[in-house]
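Closing statement on the BIS(adenosine)-5'-pentaphosphate sub-project.
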Amino acid sequence: MVNFLIFGPPGSGKGTQSVRLAEKFNLLHLSTGDMLRAEIKAGTELGKKMSLIMSKGELVPDEVVIEMIANKIDSSKGSAGFLFDGFPRTVAQTVSLEKMLNDRGMKIDQMLVLDVDHDELVKRLIARAELSGRPDDKDPAVIENRIDVYKEKTEPIINYCNNKGLYQPVNGMGTIDDIFKRLCDHMKKLL
Ligand code: AP5
Ligand code: MG
Protein backbone atom coordinates (compact mmCIF):
# COMPACT_ATOMS: atom_id res chain seq x y z
CA MET A 1 0.00 0.00 0.00
CA VAL A 2 1.22 3.48 -0.88
CA ASN A 3 -0.54 6.28 0.98
CA PHE A 4 -0.66 9.92 -0.06
CA LEU A 5 -1.90 13.11 1.52
CA ILE A 6 -3.31 15.55 -1.02
CA PHE A 7 -2.93 18.81 0.73
CA GLY A 8 -3.58 22.51 0.21
CA PRO A 9 -5.87 25.39 1.15
CA PRO A 10 -9.62 25.46 0.42
CA GLY A 11 -10.14 25.70 -3.32
CA SER A 12 -6.67 24.44 -4.20
CA GLY A 13 -8.14 21.51 -6.15
CA LYS A 14 -7.72 18.64 -3.68
CA GLY A 15 -11.11 17.10 -4.42
CA THR A 16 -10.96 17.67 -8.18
CA GLN A 17 -7.55 16.06 -8.51
CA SER A 18 -8.19 13.28 -5.97
CA VAL A 19 -11.09 11.86 -7.96
CA ARG A 20 -8.94 11.57 -11.06
CA LEU A 21 -5.85 10.29 -9.24
CA ALA A 22 -7.83 7.65 -7.35
CA GLU A 23 -9.21 6.32 -10.60
CA LYS A 24 -5.89 6.32 -12.43
CA PHE A 25 -3.86 4.63 -9.68
CA ASN A 26 -6.59 2.49 -8.00
CA LEU A 27 -6.33 4.45 -4.75
CA LEU A 28 -9.12 4.81 -2.22
CA HIS A 29 -10.08 8.49 -2.01
CA LEU A 30 -10.98 9.49 1.55
CA SER A 31 -12.32 13.04 1.96
CA THR A 32 -13.47 13.99 5.45
CA GLY A 33 -15.31 17.00 4.00
CA ASP A 34 -17.33 14.70 1.71
CA MET A 35 -18.00 12.30 4.60
CA LEU A 36 -19.23 15.12 6.81
CA ARG A 37 -21.46 16.54 4.06
CA ALA A 38 -22.92 13.04 3.57
CA GLU A 39 -23.81 12.97 7.29
CA ILE A 40 -25.54 16.34 6.96
CA LYS A 41 -27.44 15.21 3.86
CA ALA A 42 -28.56 12.02 5.60
CA GLY A 43 -29.81 14.10 8.55
CA THR A 44 -27.85 12.13 11.16
CA GLU A 45 -27.30 13.42 14.70
CA LEU A 46 -23.60 13.86 13.90
CA GLY A 47 -24.43 15.80 10.75
CA LYS A 48 -26.75 18.11 12.66
CA LYS A 49 -24.06 18.81 15.24
CA MET A 50 -21.34 19.49 12.65
CA SER A 51 -23.26 21.59 10.13
CA LEU A 52 -23.07 24.87 12.06
CA ILE A 53 -19.30 24.52 12.58
CA MET A 54 -18.79 23.77 8.89
CA SER A 55 -20.98 26.64 7.70
CA LYS A 56 -18.72 29.02 9.64
CA GLY A 57 -15.58 27.54 8.09
CA GLU A 58 -14.24 26.28 11.42
CA LEU A 59 -12.78 22.81 11.94
CA VAL A 60 -14.89 20.06 13.49
CA PRO A 61 -13.33 18.32 16.52
CA ASP A 62 -10.34 16.10 15.79
CA GLU A 63 -11.94 12.99 17.33
CA VAL A 64 -14.91 13.17 14.94
CA VAL A 65 -12.81 12.94 11.79
CA ILE A 66 -10.27 10.54 13.29
CA GLU A 67 -13.05 8.07 14.01
CA MET A 68 -14.47 8.45 10.51
CA ILE A 69 -11.10 7.74 8.94
CA ALA A 70 -10.35 4.79 11.24
CA ASN A 71 -13.65 3.16 10.24
CA LYS A 72 -12.89 3.62 6.54
CA ILE A 73 -9.36 2.27 6.80
CA ASP A 74 -10.62 -0.88 8.48
CA SER A 75 -13.45 -1.50 6.04
CA SER A 76 -11.48 -1.01 2.82
CA LYS A 77 -9.88 -3.76 0.81
CA GLY A 78 -8.35 -4.13 -2.63
CA SER A 79 -6.92 -0.68 -3.36
CA ALA A 80 -3.28 0.16 -4.05
CA GLY A 81 -3.34 2.67 -1.19
CA PHE A 82 -5.16 5.62 0.31
CA LEU A 83 -5.46 9.17 -0.92
CA PHE A 84 -6.31 11.39 2.04
CA ASP A 85 -8.05 14.63 0.98
CA GLY A 86 -8.73 17.33 3.58
CA PHE A 87 -7.41 15.09 6.33
CA PRO A 88 -5.31 15.53 8.40
CA ARG A 89 -5.98 19.18 9.17
CA THR A 90 -4.20 19.57 12.49
CA VAL A 91 -0.90 18.20 13.75
CA ALA A 92 -2.91 16.12 16.27
CA GLN A 93 -4.85 14.51 13.39
CA THR A 94 -1.54 13.80 11.63
CA VAL A 95 -0.11 12.04 14.67
CA SER A 96 -3.31 9.96 14.96
CA LEU A 97 -3.19 9.04 11.28
CA GLU A 98 0.43 7.96 11.53
CA LYS A 99 -0.42 5.75 14.48
CA MET A 100 -3.45 4.26 12.72
CA LEU A 101 -1.34 3.43 9.69
CA ASN A 102 1.67 2.19 11.66
CA ASP A 103 -0.53 -0.14 13.72
CA ARG A 104 -1.59 -1.72 10.43
CA GLY A 105 1.91 -1.96 8.95
CA MET A 106 1.57 1.15 6.77
CA LYS A 107 2.74 4.77 6.75
CA ILE A 108 2.22 8.12 5.08
CA ASP A 109 4.41 7.83 1.98
CA GLN A 110 4.14 11.34 0.57
CA MET A 111 2.43 14.67 1.14
CA LEU A 112 1.60 16.47 -2.12
CA VAL A 113 0.88 20.14 -1.44
CA LEU A 114 -0.97 22.18 -4.06
CA ASP A 115 0.34 25.75 -4.12
CA VAL A 116 -2.29 28.24 -5.34
CA ASP A 117 -2.39 32.05 -5.06
CA HIS A 118 -4.85 33.50 -2.57
CA ASP A 119 -6.86 35.42 -5.19
CA GLU A 120 -7.22 32.30 -7.35
CA LEU A 121 -8.55 30.31 -4.35
CA VAL A 122 -11.22 32.93 -3.70
CA LYS A 123 -12.11 33.13 -7.37
CA ARG A 124 -12.59 29.36 -7.65
CA LEU A 125 -14.72 29.10 -4.52
CA ILE A 126 -16.94 32.04 -5.41
CA ALA A 127 -17.45 30.51 -8.86
CA ARG A 128 -18.36 27.16 -7.27
CA ALA A 129 -20.87 28.70 -4.83
CA GLU A 130 -23.50 28.90 -7.57
CA LEU A 131 -23.36 25.17 -8.29
CA SER A 132 -22.21 23.47 -5.10
CA GLY A 133 -24.93 24.59 -2.72
CA ARG A 134 -22.22 24.54 -0.05
CA PRO A 135 -23.06 27.13 2.62
CA ASP A 136 -19.34 27.66 3.27
CA ASP A 137 -18.86 28.83 -0.35
CA LYS A 138 -21.66 31.39 -0.31
CA ASP A 139 -20.20 34.04 2.00
CA PRO A 140 -16.84 35.63 1.06
CA ALA A 141 -16.13 36.21 4.79
CA VAL A 142 -16.48 32.46 5.41
CA ILE A 143 -14.14 31.73 2.50
CA GLU A 144 -11.55 34.06 4.04
CA ASN A 145 -12.04 32.41 7.43
CA ARG A 146 -11.47 28.95 5.90
CA ILE A 147 -8.20 30.20 4.39
CA ASP A 148 -7.17 31.76 7.76
CA VAL A 149 -8.01 28.53 9.62
CA TYR A 150 -5.92 26.62 7.09
CA LYS A 151 -2.94 28.92 7.69
CA GLU A 152 -3.23 28.80 11.45
CA LYS A 153 -4.15 25.17 12.16
CA THR A 154 -3.40 23.14 9.04
CA GLU A 155 -0.29 24.62 7.45
CA PRO A 156 1.94 23.63 10.43
CA ILE A 157 1.54 20.03 9.20
CA ILE A 158 3.79 20.94 6.25
CA ASN A 159 6.69 21.58 8.58
CA TYR A 160 5.93 18.40 10.52
CA CYS A 161 5.94 16.31 7.33
CA ASN A 162 8.91 18.15 5.84
CA ASN A 163 10.99 17.11 8.85
CA LYS A 164 10.13 13.51 7.97
CA GLY A 165 11.08 13.94 4.30
CA LEU A 166 7.49 13.57 3.09
CA TYR A 167 6.81 17.08 1.74
CA GLN A 168 6.42 17.52 -2.00
CA PRO A 169 5.18 20.92 -3.22
CA VAL A 170 3.25 20.98 -6.51
CA ASN A 171 2.34 24.02 -8.59
CA GLY A 172 -1.46 24.15 -8.31
CA MET A 173 -1.94 27.02 -10.78
CA GLY A 174 -3.01 26.39 -14.38
CA THR A 175 -5.42 24.01 -16.02
CA ILE A 176 -6.85 20.96 -14.24
CA ASP A 177 -5.10 18.73 -16.82
CA ASP A 178 -1.70 20.35 -16.33
CA ILE A 179 -1.91 20.05 -12.54
CA PHE A 180 -3.06 16.43 -12.86
CA LYS A 181 0.00 15.63 -14.94
CA ARG A 182 2.31 17.24 -12.37
CA LEU A 183 0.74 15.18 -9.58
CA CYS A 184 0.90 11.96 -11.62
CA ASP A 185 4.60 12.50 -12.32
CA HIS A 186 5.32 12.59 -8.57
CA MET A 187 3.05 9.69 -7.69
CA LYS A 188 4.40 7.43 -10.43
CA LYS A 189 7.78 7.49 -8.72
CA LEU A 190 6.29 5.72 -5.70
CA LEU A 191 3.62 3.50 -7.27
P1 AP5 B 1 -13.46 20.31 2.79
O1 AP5 B 1 -14.60 19.67 2.13
O2 AP5 B 1 -12.21 19.56 2.94
O3 AP5 B 1 -13.25 21.69 2.08
P2 AP5 B 1 -11.99 22.67 1.91
O4 AP5 B 1 -10.70 22.23 2.45
O5 AP5 B 1 -12.50 23.97 2.37
O6 AP5 B 1 -11.66 22.62 0.45
P3 AP5 B 1 -12.58 22.49 -0.77
O7 AP5 B 1 -13.18 21.14 -0.82
O8 AP5 B 1 -13.46 23.67 -0.83
O9 AP5 B 1 -11.46 22.69 -1.90
P4 AP5 B 1 -10.59 21.63 -2.68
O10 AP5 B 1 -9.15 21.89 -2.40
O11 AP5 B 1 -11.09 20.25 -2.55
O12 AP5 B 1 -10.84 22.15 -4.15
P5 AP5 B 1 -11.84 21.60 -5.27
O13 AP5 B 1 -11.19 20.51 -6.02
O14 AP5 B 1 -13.17 21.36 -4.68
O15 AP5 B 1 -13.91 20.77 4.27
C1 AP5 B 1 -15.12 21.47 4.49
C2 AP5 B 1 -15.33 21.68 5.98
O16 AP5 B 1 -15.48 20.40 6.62
C3 AP5 B 1 -14.17 22.32 6.74
O17 AP5 B 1 -14.23 23.73 6.68
C4 AP5 B 1 -14.39 21.79 8.15
O18 AP5 B 1 -15.44 22.46 8.78
C5 AP5 B 1 -14.84 20.36 7.89
N1 AP5 B 1 -13.72 19.40 7.82
C6 AP5 B 1 -13.40 18.63 6.75
N2 AP5 B 1 -12.34 17.85 7.04
C7 AP5 B 1 -11.98 18.15 8.31
C8 AP5 B 1 -10.93 17.70 9.15
N3 AP5 B 1 -10.05 16.77 8.74
N4 AP5 B 1 -10.84 18.23 10.40
C9 AP5 B 1 -11.74 19.14 10.84
N5 AP5 B 1 -12.75 19.64 10.07
C10 AP5 B 1 -12.85 19.13 8.82
O19 AP5 B 1 -11.88 22.88 -6.23
C11 AP5 B 1 -12.55 24.05 -5.87
C12 AP5 B 1 -13.27 24.63 -7.10
O20 AP5 B 1 -12.29 25.05 -8.04
C13 AP5 B 1 -14.15 23.62 -7.84
O21 AP5 B 1 -15.30 24.27 -8.32
C14 AP5 B 1 -13.28 23.15 -9.00
O22 AP5 B 1 -14.03 22.75 -10.11
C15 AP5 B 1 -12.44 24.38 -9.28
N6 AP5 B 1 -11.09 24.07 -9.76
C16 AP5 B 1 -10.27 23.07 -9.33
N7 AP5 B 1 -9.09 23.11 -9.98
C17 AP5 B 1 -9.15 24.17 -10.83
C18 AP5 B 1 -8.24 24.73 -11.77
N8 AP5 B 1 -7.02 24.21 -11.96
N9 AP5 B 1 -8.64 25.82 -12.45
C19 AP5 B 1 -9.88 26.36 -12.26
N10 AP5 B 1 -10.80 25.86 -11.41
C20 AP5 B 1 -10.44 24.78 -10.69
MG1 MG C 1 -12.57 19.33 -1.30
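Residues 14-15, 31, 33, 86 surround magnesium ion (ligand 2) (CB under 6 Å). With this model delivered, the sub-project is considered complete and its resources will be redirected to Aim 3.
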